Amino acid sequence: MAPKVSIVVPIYGVEKYLHQCIDSILAQTLKEIEIILVNDGSPDMCPQIIDEYAKKDLRIVAVHQSNGGYGRAVNHGIELANGEYIGIIESDDWIEPDMFEKLYFNAKKNNTDITKGGFWRYDSTLPKEKQNMIWSYNNQNLFDAPHTVFTIEEYPLLMAFHASIWSSIYRADFIKQIKVNESKSASYQDFPFMIEALCKAKRISVVHKPFVHYRMEAGQNSSTIRRDKRLILMPEQCIIGKKILKNSGKYQILKEAFYFHAYLACYGFYQNIYWKYKREYLKKYQELMSEIDESFTYKYFTPEQIKICKNIQKGNLIKSLTDFKRLRRFLCSMHISKRGFCIQILGVKISKGSYMDRPALFSINIKS
Q1: Closest Cα partner for 140 from 125, 122, 153, 155?
Q2: Would you call 366 helix, strand, or coil by DSSP?
Q3: Kindly report the CA angle at 51 between 50 and 53, in degrees rounded to 5?
Q4: Rounded distance, CA 278 to CA 319, Å?
Q5: Measuring CA to CA, which residue among 84, 74, 90, 135 is closest to residue 107?
Q6: Is residue 70 a contact partner of residue 141, using CB atoms and an 8 Å limit?
Q7: If you write DSSP's letter for every residue of 275-310 in order, what string do you get?
Q8: What is the DSSP string of 73-96?
Q9: Which of 272-299 are b and which e, b meaning 16 or more Cβ less than 10 Å from the residue's Cβ?
Q10: Which of 138, 164, 165, 134 is nearest to 298 (CA)?
Q11: 190-200 and 233-248 helices cross at what angle (nearest 10)?
């Protein structure tokens, strides 16, 4: 008998977190699941870990492939999946025990192509009361979505949120027709995938509860904390997403939500990327936002975000790069907390913990 849900886990360089991730999947209250662990040529102990799990539980499929990147790992897992529905879980995250039971029964009840749940931003380096914060943008979150079945045209705001393709399940015959971009070492490859899935879905539903602990903390092998040149691939992924949106014929209806998402996603990486790459990044960012015209209402933007977005469209590096608070912190600042510490003078930074990703001309990062 086919499993109710196949869960695909792309794995690379996450030895530190992998046990917690897999254990949280094995603890699911929905037992009729298939767990596809895709080792994408991980150089640490991840291959051995997943083989050990596969020996202990027949629901686990251990897959080993040469390093091809996140997109290839996810696509390979989806191709192998036998479940009625398919979910994707990031290997450095962990999930609540009732996630797939709640999503599956909602999907069956509503006969959906996509059923989506919420998630927390998880950072274990913060004080306990702040470690899990429900993800939201401008005080709007997923739980504002309708309680009934809808299409993306009926609730465009869903496209404005974090792509979070790992907080959903997808009807198998629907999602097997959609591929994640397979650009090796790219960032945010799930963005075009999310755009295509939302545009093609005829029935979408939301379970108004968070399930995934989305890890965002120092020490991860994650694009959310990366600072190197590969971050320039972020606006490139958004440009691909824009082409998919245009090809769907839904660009005019969804452009407000699309550009809000693209602006936020790219701006965070724009702040993080090393200074020597910022001008190159800005050119791609400007290309992405260049088609915003006078008909655009900035429906989801705050006044400050509108100002920054317009500066990006003009290619104004200084104004779109920073504000007074960030400039002051760059020139002279000192912060000490449970998260670590950061001392910065004239662009020279000495830091430990969660402050390691702050921009600097020269950095000394203490890792232990």
Answers
A1: 155
A2: strand
A3: 65
A4: 13
A5: 84
A6: no
A7: HHHHHHHHHHHHHHHTT--TT---TT--HHHHHHHH
A8: HHHHHHHH--SSEEEE--TT-EE-
A9: bbeeebbeebbebbbebbeebeeeeebe
A10: 138
A11: 10
- Count Cα atoms within 13 angstroms, Cβ side, for 51: 6
pTM of the model: 0.84
What's the 3-state SS for 177-207?
CCCCCCCCCCCCCHHHHHHHHHHHCCCEEEE
pLDDT single digits (tens) 128-155: 877 888 877 666 677 789 999 999 999 9
CA 78/CA 44 separation, integer angstroms: 24
Helix (H, G, I), strand (E, B) or coil at 130: helix
Secondary structure (3-state) at 155:
coil
Query: What is the C-alpha to C-alpha distance for residues 311 and 318, in angstroms, rounded to an integer?
Result: 9
Specify the amino acid at residue 134: I
127 burial (CB, 10 Å; 0-12 / 13-18 / 19+) is: exposed
Six-digit token pair at 241?
């997403």
Residue 169's DSSP bridge partners are 87, 115
- Give the whole-angstrom CA distance, residue 55 versus residue 348: 50
Give the residues across from 8 on adjacent strands.
36, 88
Cα–Cα distance, 234 to 187 (Å, whole number): 5
pLDDT (tens digit, 9 = 90+) per residue, 234-288? 899 999 999 999 999 999 999 999 999 999 888 888 877 887 888 888 899 999 9
In whole angstroms, give the CA distance from residue 212 to residue 20. Answer: 12
**Contact criterion met (CB below 8 Å) for 63 and 80:** yes
Residue 243 CA to residue 246 CA, distance in Å, equals 5
10 Å Cβ neighbour count for 122?
19
The residue-averaged pLDDT of 104-128 equals 92
Report the helix count and the strand count for the chain, using DSSP H and E: 13, 13
